[in-house]
Amino acid sequence: MEQYGTILLVEDDESLAQWVADYLNNQGYTTHCCHRGDEVVSMVKQHNPDLVLLDIMLPGQDGISVCRELRQFYSKPIIMLTAKDEEMDEVIGLEVGASDYVIKPVRPRALLARIKANARAAQDSSAQSDSSSAILNVGNLKIDTQARKVLVSGQEVAISSAEYLLLHFLASNAGNVVSRDAVFKATKGREYDGLDRSVDVLISALRKKFDDDPQNPEKIKTIWGKGYLLVPTAW
């Protein structure tokens, strides 16, 4: 069977982890399992996986703090596994750098679709950075696509990987309204399912970081019924 890449699965329920690992292995992935949060960083450095599946509730160290620590050196997709209806976990996970999230109980085909979509989005983003100009300027906003750094008026702004992908897409289309579906395809590699609020969470986080009034935003606007607009004259 064709090999598609390496996945690190972090899940403290060992029977569930084995079941998911067997499924992913049968789909052509090489899967390594980790059952403690405080062992994740060393395993990522050891195996350099193409994607991390990270549960939030873990012994040793919780998934949120693990994700934050990984994002200091690891830029590939991190998909968080969250308990059903735990919306705050989803929000915090996205804010600390998770690429996406999957709600438990895990449905194999849905999980596989998310894995493929995030891997595809990461590859597309990397290809775009390689082929496009190294610097993207919109007013006082400067995005260094090679270093993945964001600066406003010369001051660097720390943003997560997921926030970077969204900001880069909006800035690349500055002055044009982009649909929610287009945002999902560009940043997550999949279509909008009608329920996922992750883009709204990321838009809110970007507004906070760029001092854009959430009640009356000027830099990143939500155009109701149409999508989102990064206003070039506001930067």
Automatic annotation (TrEMBL):
<dbReference type="GO" id="GO:0032993">
    <property type="term" value="C:protein-DNA complex"/>
</dbReference>
<keyword id="KW-0963">Cytoplasm</keyword>
<dbReference type="GO" id="GO:0006355">
    <property type="term" value="P:regulation of DNA-templated transcription"/>
</dbReference>
<feature type="domain" description="Response regulatory">
    <location>
        <begin position="6"/>
        <end position="119"/>
    </location>
</feature>
<dbReference type="InterPro" id="IPR016032">
    <property type="entry name" value="Sig_transdc_resp-reg_C-effctor"/>
</dbReference>
<feature type="domain" description="OmpR/PhoB-type">
    <location>
        <begin position="133"/>
        <end position="232"/>
    </location>
</feature>
<keyword id="KW-0597">Phosphoprotein</keyword>
<dbReference type="InterPro" id="IPR001867">
    <property type="entry name" value="OmpR/PhoB-type_DNA-bd"/>
</dbReference>
<dbReference type="Pfam" id="PF00486">
    <property type="entry name" value="Trans_reg_C"/>
</dbReference>
<keyword id="KW-0238">DNA-binding</keyword>
<dbReference type="InterPro" id="IPR001789">
    <property type="entry name" value="Sig_transdc_resp-reg_receiver"/>
</dbReference>
<dbReference type="InterPro" id="IPR036388">
    <property type="entry name" value="WH-like_DNA-bd_sf"/>
</dbReference>
<keyword id="KW-0805">Transcription regulation</keyword>
<dbReference type="Pfam" id="PF00072">
    <property type="entry name" value="Response_reg"/>
</dbReference>
<keyword id="KW-0804">Transcription</keyword>
<dbReference type="GO" id="GO:0000156">
    <property type="term" value="F:phosphorelay response regulator activity"/>
</dbReference>
<keyword id="KW-0902">Two-component regulatory system</keyword>
<dbReference type="InterPro" id="IPR039420">
    <property type="entry name" value="WalR-like"/>
</dbReference>
<dbReference type="GO" id="GO:0005829">
    <property type="term" value="C:cytosol"/>
</dbReference>
<dbReference type="InterPro" id="IPR011006">
    <property type="entry name" value="CheY-like_superfamily"/>
</dbReference>
<feature type="modified residue" description="4-aspartylphosphate">
    <location>
        <position position="55"/>
    </location>
</feature>
<dbReference type="GO" id="GO:0000976">
    <property type="term" value="F:transcription cis-regulatory region binding"/>
</dbReference>
<feature type="DNA-binding region" description="OmpR/PhoB-type">
    <location>
        <begin position="133"/>
        <end position="232"/>
    </location>
</feature>
<protein>
    <submittedName>
        <fullName>DNA-binding response regulator</fullName>
    </submittedName>
</protein>
